[in-house]
Amino acid sequence: MSDWIEKEKCQFCGKQAKRFMFAAFVCESEECLEEARKERGGPGGHQAKKWALEKE
Ligand SMILES: [Zn+2]
């Protein structure tokens, strides 16, 4: 795990951030990840596609 992210909070629920996705800090919650994805502007690029595939 990277240390730098432990200082950050999820931008949607305020919990400890676990990852930086779609230009936002998010926790482990898939709902927050989804919020980040929506804020970014919806599907676009292989990152969003990859995530959609993993969710199946
Ligand atoms: Zn969150």
Features:
2 strands; 56 residues; 2 helices; binds zinc ion; alpha+beta; two-stranded antiparallel ribbon; single chain
**Helix/strand order, N-terminal first:** EEHH
> Mean pLDDT score, rounded?
83
Widest beta sheet: strand line-up? 1-2
**Number of strand elements:** 2
**Gross geometry:** globular
Please report the distance between the alpha carbons of the first and last residues. Answer: 25 Å
Instruction: Assign a percent range to the helix content.
Output: 25-40%
Strand content: 5-15%
- For this structure, the quaternary state is single chain
So how many helices? 2
What would you note in describing this structure?
There is one protein chain. This protein is of the alpha+beta class and 56 residues long. 39% of the residues lie in helices and 11% in strands. The chain has two helices and two strands. The protein has a two-stranded antiparallel ribbon with strand order 1-2. Strand 1 and strand 2 form a beta hairpin. The protein starts with 18 loop residues before the first strand and ends with a helix. The site of zinc ion has 8 residues, from loops. The site of zinc ion (ZN) has 8 residues, from loops.
